[in-house]
Write a structure and sequence with these properties.
By secondary structure, the protein is of the alpha/beta class. The protein is 51% helix and 9% strand. It has 20 helices and 13 strands. It has a four-stranded antiparallel sheet with strand order 1-2-4-3. It has a four-stranded parallel sheet with strand order 6-5-10-11, with helices on both faces. The protein has a three-stranded antiparallel sheet with strand order 7-8-9. It is globular.
């Protein structure tokens, strides 16, 4: 039970004492901490039902609450708001709550089984700025659920089976026509490829451009795709080599972001299942012919209430579409994990596609009780509010973006007061941790659907709502705790509050369960970011106003060390949830 839950119960009991057994307590954190800690507007709701003056009801409730020593003051404000400030004794007595659950957070519902689909890069293509948001948001959401003790499986869902592979095979064949993979009689499975993952990244955009200007080249790529998907031995062997090289490079980039997937599956993993599904749907009459294509006709959109366009499963040229592989993947996930929810962290522009897929999945009864949820997100833009690109107008690769952030962070490290005692290697490690944290925090502190401007200087600043500001606070907490005396020094000491900043920090710590629950319920990492920033702000005021080691009274030192230790533990947990990497020194 959180501190808010305890207050809610007391307010509810006060309503019962006044004869309102089923009245809504409606208690929450006060938006005016200078006046009160908690506020209830239950009297306003009750007044409508009772047809009475809400202030009169509120006054009666307040009179009951005033008799409880848990509160130092209770007052009625406005049309009938009940304001409550906790006593110092109540705050201290409730300290034991931090020992329950995880820093006071305890889930009240049964743990869920969840599959989360995030990442989605195509093999043989360099990860670019567009891959940042799904990776960072998806990883944070996964960690939120892990913290709440859900069973959650993260799947990268690689694009490894469609036309892009056919295009790549066409380009490889032009450059290396004598490779054994192109022989009709290919048997060996140990042929060595003469190219690297970087060569593949260079080849794909060239192949893509050629296909737009050369119909014969495009036709060849489509035929390559068909042959690959139908089991051509040489193409399958070449595809495995491409996949091996590409995945190795992709893993390096995600490792830099501290993003980790449980499953490294792609569209190819459901190829055999897909063909069986299509045959089954044809036999059942669910797959309809439409101008040569095979489609599933759908009902009405849940969001727009308009008729949904049919989901194309197979195009008129025989190409299998993404909708079909998505349905086959849902079927596989249901069999393998029996999840209660499947989450898709994919660009908001794919909203219609997922509405079609989800509608089709329900029509096919693939998910009788499982929730399918598309967690869309906005775009990273430049100062011109257009999609973020390099200075020369090209697509910004993820590797280059992170390198630029490291360079900006290194400038800050070089200017720090500890720079002289750091080796070049230590500076590099610190700069990289700050850079990655800065990029991730800037992304996550924005609500998912919002676009945001990518500004390296702003995101690596030591002041303001930034990762460096938060990391500096965490390093400061850790430094204080490293100088904490042994527990025996504080034997017999009791906690005591003497300064407003102590109280403010205490209240912020108690708020963690509510903030976390909001982030959990709404798949909203930005709520964690907001709480963490406010916690660091409150700690910095506390650190400035309240000498810790220098406090004269042992009980005051004891209290301040305990507050610092609890603040560090909670801040550390929240920072790791959103993927911040904490350096040893700043």
């Amino acid at each position: 039970m959180s501190l808010l839950a305890i207050v809610e119960k007391k307010v509810h009991n006060a309503f019962k004492t006044c004869g309102y057994d089923k009245a809504p307590a409606l208690t929450g954190l006060s938006d005016r901490p200078d006046i009160s800690d908690y506020q209830s507007n239950g009297a306003l709701q009750l007044a409508k039902k009772e047809k009475k003056n809400p202030r009169e009801i509120a006054a009666r409730i307040a009179d009951v609450l005033k008799t409880d020593s848990f509160f130092s003051s209770v007052s009625v404000d406005g049309p009938g708001f009940i304001n409550m400030r906790l006593s110092d004794a109540a705050l201290i007595q409730s300290f034991c709550l931090f020992k329950k659950g995880k820093n006071g957070y305890q889930r009240s519902t049964k743990a869920q089984r969840i599959v989360i689909d995030y990442g989605g890069p195509n093999v043989a293509k360099a990860l670019h700025v567009g891959h940042l948001r799904p990776a960072v948001i998806g990883e944070a959401i996964k960690r939120i659920h892990q913290y709440a003790d859900d069973f959650i499986v993260g799947d990268i869902h690689l694009g490894d089976w469609g036309l892009p592979i056919g295009l790549l095979i066409a380009e490889i064949q032009e450059r290396y026509p004598d490779l054994p993979f192109f022989s009709k009689n290919y048997h060996a499975d140990k042929a060595v490829v003469p190219f690297t993952e970087k060569d593949l990244e260079e080849m794909y955009p060239i192949a893509s451009q050629k296909s737009k200007n050369d119909e014969a080249y495009l036709a060849r790529a489509k035929e390559n795709t068909r042959l690959l998907q139908n089991g051509h031995r040489g193409y399958r062997a070449l595809w495995r080599q491409i996949l091996k090289l590409s995945v190795r490079e992709i893993k390096k980039n995600y490792q830099k972001l501290d993003v980790h997937f449980d499953l490294w599956l792609g569209e190819s993993s459901v190829n055999n299942r897909l063909q069986k599904m299509i045959k089954r749907l044809k036999k059942q009459g669910i797959l309809k012919s439409d101008n040569g294509a095979e489609v599933i006709k759908l009902g009405t959109s849940v969001t727009t209430k308009n008729k949904l366009p049919p989901l194309i499963m197979v195009k008129s040229d025989g190409a299998v579409m993404y909708g079909a592989t998505d349905l086959a993947t849902i079927e596989a996930r249901m069999e393998d994990y029996q999840p209660s929810r499947i989450l898709y962290v994919v660009d908001a522009r794919q909203a219609l596609h997922f509405e079609q897929v989800f509608s089709a999945a329900r029509k096919l009864k693939l998910v009788p009780k499982t929730e399918l949820l598309h967690l869309g997100f906005g775009t990273i833009t430049g100062p011109d509010n257009k999609p973020f690109k390099t200075r020369d107008g090209g697509v910004m690769t993820l590797e280059r973006l992170l390198n630029e952030a490291v360079q900006a962070s290194m400038k800050k490290v070089e200017q720090s007061k500890n720079a002289a005692k750091l080796s070049a290697q230590k500076k590099e490690v610190i700069a990289r941790k700050i850079a990655v944290s800065a990029v991730k925090y800037t992304d996550l502190m924005n609500e998912r659907m919002r676009n945001y401007v990518f500004d390296i200087e702003k995101m690596t600043a030591l002041e303001g709502k930034t990762a460096p500001y938060i990391l500096y606070g965490l390093v400061r907490m850790k430094s204080v705790l490293s100088k904490m005396p042994k527990a025996a020094v504080f034997k017999g000491c009791q906690m005591v509050l003497t300064e407003p900043a102590e109280r403010a920090l205490f209240m912020r710590l108690y708020q963690m369960p509510e903030f976390f629950q909001t982030a959990y319920q709404n798949e909203a990492p930005h709520v964690i970011c907001d709480y963490l920033y406010k916690l660091i702000q409150d700690f910095n005021v506390f650190y400035h106003d309240c000498p810790i080691r220098g406090a004269k009274e042992p009980s005051i030192r004891f209290t301040r060390f305990l507050l610092t230790a609890t603040a560090y533990r909670i801040a550390f947990d929240m920072a790791r949830i959103i993927g911040l990497e904490i350096p040893e020194i700043m």
